[in-house]
Here is the input.
Amino acid sequence: MNCDKNDLLLYGVTDRSWLNGRTLYEQVEDALKGGATFIQLREKDLDADSFLKEAVEIKELCARYHVPFVINDNVEIAKKIDADGVHVGQHDMEASNVRAILGPDKIIGVSAQTVEQAVLAEKNGADYLGVGAVFHTGTKKDANSISHETVKQICEAVNIPVIAIGGISRENVMELQGTGICGIAVVSAIFAAKNITEATKELKELTQNMVQSCGANH
Here is the structure.
């Protein structure tokens, strides 16, 4: 499965912090209805059986909406359920090792905070990069902020699509204009919203405007 930069416009990362009695499945479907273009299932504390069952269900849901579906970190589950791919951080498995396990046609995303990390990830076979945190974020306690200038330098240093992540909301997304990113990854901006579908629609429109005015050439 090829990683099209248009698929990366509005990338939703799941988080069960805001379920409020609903299921993650329902929340993801709301985001897909609102136009989310990519979904990453991120589970840090779920037991393996529950994770596997949930991954299968959400993979089928994303397939219905023709939206790529990747698993955060867990290469084993991604392989087992034949997900579209996996996203790994700097402290997880190297992209080249992930590629060896998942095969040539899966999407591999890698988190990067520096130009060096970005260039290495591309060399190791990453299909796209998630770069951040671009704003202060409460979702990932250990995420260090990086400047928008660094984001721009990363976009210029690689030939694969780059998305920004970390603390992005409808209030600040336009500040990323001119960096060269092709999209954004968000957690709370979608999943903490009272109306997930409406929040997704609004954020997608803003992101489209931001990317177009970027004149992103990647």
Remarks:
- The beta strands are 10-13, 38-41, 69-72, 85-88, 107-112, 128-132, 162-165, 183-186.
- The chain has one domain: 5-214.
- The chain is about 40% helix and 15% strand.
